[in-house]
Amino acid sequence: MILTSLRVDPLELERRTGWSIKPEGACKEDRCVPLPSDGGTDGAIDARVLADRLGMPLIHDEASRLWCLGPAAGGRALTSARAPELVLPDLDGNAFSLASLRGTKVLLVAWASW
Q1: Is residue 111 assigned to a domain?
Q2: What residue ranges in 1-114 does DSSP mark as E strands?
Q3: CA–CA separation, 39 vs 70, rounded Å?
Q4: pTM over 0.70
Q5: What digits encode the pLDDT tens for the residues 29-85?
Q6: Total of domains in the chain
Q7: In whole angstroms, what is the distance from residue 32 CA to residue 54 CA?
Q8: In terms of DSSP H, where are the helices of 37-86?
């Protein structure tokens, strides 16, 4: 969910993630996660609280002044948009480091047989 501020509209949250805000908290299917009741008068929810309570990553791109929230990952969420160090053989069998591309845009494509 791309955000322009840290205040999330509950209807937009439900439309884009499936999480609805109810009196018992944020709910999706048969799960409900309690949320603090100190929301603002506009009914919006703090994205930082959602990220913490729902196990969603919350990443900020300062250059574009945008935030990215989600998806819920059951505690396995990335904490940043930085790829880990990765060294794999190239087509000739030589070691190739992803870090050698630092500063350029990179598209990684992964495939698994399962």
Answers
A1: no
A2: 2-3, 7-8, 20-22, 25-28, 31-33, 45-46, 58-61, 66-69, 87-89, 95-97
A3: 20
A4: no
A5: 888 999 887 655 578 899 999 888 888 888 898 888 999 887 765 555 556 666 678
A6: 1
A7: 10
A8: 47-54
* Token pair of 82 as six digits: 């930085």
Q: Could you tell me which residues come within 8 angstroms of residue 113 by beta carbon, excluding any fewer than 6 positions away?
A: none
Report if residue 75 sits inside a domain. no
Cα 105 to Cα 90: distance, rounded to the nearest angstrom: 19
> In Å, what is the CA distance from 33 to each residue of 2, 30, 38, 69, 81?
22, 10, 15, 17, 26
Decide if 34 is inside a domain. Answer: yes
Structural domain including 31 reads: 2-69
- Judge whether 65 lies within some domain: yes
